[in-house]
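[recover] target loaded
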């Protein structure tokens, strides 16, 4: 059963912005910390941002000051506002709980963000 659905990716120029959305099931959204992860071609998946059910935040060093994670409790949605994008941000972005289950089936389709001139 699909519990996390990402959207909002696209193609942008360096310095541009994207806003990603993740709609989560209620059983997940209101209980677990939620995180954005990304996986670039040829690289392992990495966590970029985390938000708890009560709003505490954490970011990877690579995105601090550029990305903002937030949540809308009424919509069961987590957002990732990505600003000042560069080519190193090109990846498939996923949302999942933090820490993620040790099960590949927990990952959804993700949403592709491509930063290029």
């Amino acid at each position: 059963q699909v519990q996390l659905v990402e959207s909002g990716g696209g193609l942008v120029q360096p310095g541009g912005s994207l806003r990603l959305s993740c709609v989560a099931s209620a059983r997940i959204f209101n209980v677990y910390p939620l995180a954005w992860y990304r996986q670039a071609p040829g690289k392992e998946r990495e966590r970029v941002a985390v938000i708890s059910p009560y709003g505490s935040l954490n970011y990877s060093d690579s995105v601090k000051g550029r990305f903002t994670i937030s949540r809308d409790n009424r919509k069961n949605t987590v957002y990732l506002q990505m600003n000042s994008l560069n080519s190193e941000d090109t990846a498939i972005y996923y949302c999942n709980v933090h820490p993620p289950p040790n099960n590949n089936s927990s990952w959804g389709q993700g949403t592709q963000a491509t930063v290029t001139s």
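[recover] notes: The first helix runs from residue 26 to 29.
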